Amino acid sequence: KISEGAGLILGVYYDEKDYLNHTICFTKAAALFNHNINGKLVEGLKMFGPLPKLGEVRTFTQLDPAYSLVTVVGLGDNNAGYNKREARDEAKENIRKAVGVACRVLQSHFVDKISEGAGLILGVYYDEKDYLNHTICFTKAAALFNHNINGKLVEGLKMFGPLPKLGEVRTFTQLDPAYSLVTVVGLGDNNAGYNKREARDEAKENIRKAVGVACRVLQSHFVDK
């Protein structure tokens, strides 16, 4: 289980001809990632055997030290077009489905920071006392991100007003040129503990719920480069 890690979602298209010709059709983000890690993504996928079809995933834990978990999801046919009968763009519909599956995989691992192509999910805890004292309790990943962009995340949240409570989100489009969309989601009380009556870890349950909401926000924006 990963509680304070970073997860990456990347897409790969599936075409029987490409597979038979030993070629892999990545999204731009996946191709760049593979290049940056010297082809290790291709090597890892080949070890799995067949490429993932639409909605299938392949997960890796040691491809890049920057990410605790890398999930490659199948996006189906790269040549999927417009379905006149259903009045639907099949390519975008495939991306919706695939990203939803991949997000649930990361969600199940409690990844609090998810980079999806060019979208980022970060968590912030909510405590009435902290808010009244003008302090913000970030996850480690969110605190590091805020530090790297010189406090712009804090500034952006303050412009919104109240901090997001459990499951509420705040979205930003111009915080960091590396991400087209940054979604900050409320994780609830940082001191949430074990609920004996329900036999449930409330902190982990809160993270599950919050990440699920944030994933749907990214999914609706088709964030995949």
TrEMBL record:
Alphabetical GO biological process terms: proteolysis
Residue intervals of the Peptidase M17 leucyl aminopeptidase N-terminal domain: 26-109, 138-220
Pfam family, one: Peptidase_M17_N
A GO term for molecular function: metalloaminopeptidase activity
Protein name: Peptidase M17 leucyl aminopeptidase N-terminal domain-containing protein
UniProt lineage: Eukaryota, Metazoa, Ecdysozoa, Arthropoda, Hexapoda
